[in-house]
Design a protein that fits this description.
Blueprint lengths: L4 H11 L5 E6 L2 E6 L2 E7 L2 E5 L2 H7 L5 E6 L2 E9 L7 H14 L10
Antiparallel strand pairs: 1-2, 2-3, 3-4, 4-6, 5-6
Length: 112
């Protein structure tokens, strides 16, 4: 599984202050679970951020952002962000903050 390990390190560092962060391999990369819920992932060279439907419309105005499509259906909570959209630290921080703000409202994944 090949993914941007430098991006994963940036995310890991941004979340280090949180008490309940777990890493799981998925989405062609690594996903950072916060409080048992998918929050932000590295998929290939992109960030996959769970920001919720309320933030989606504004987020999609960014040309470096696209909605996640899963099984031919748009996902209302997740967006992919390409590298130009998170290269600058303030842009990166904005995506992390959006994902963390939505996390308390997110549904937890079903346990198998």
């Amino acid at each position: 599984m090949k993914y941007n390990t430098k991006l994963a390190d940036r995310i890991r560092e941004a979340l280090v202050h949180l008490p309940d962060v777990e890493e799981k391999e998925m989405f062609r990369g690594v996903c950072f679970m916060v409080d048992g819920k998918m929050c932000v992932c590295v998929s290939g060279d992109e960030m996959l951020c769970r920001i919720g439907a309320d933030a989606m419309e504004t987020a999609l105005e960014d040309s470096n952002c696209r909605q996640m499509i899963m099984r031919d259906k748009p996902n209302k909570d997740f967006v992919f962000v390409s590298e130009p959209g998170f290269y600058r630290q303030d842009d990166f921080d904005r995506w992390i903050k959006l994902a963390l703000a939505f996390n308390p409202k997110a549904k937890a994944s079903k346990k198998k």
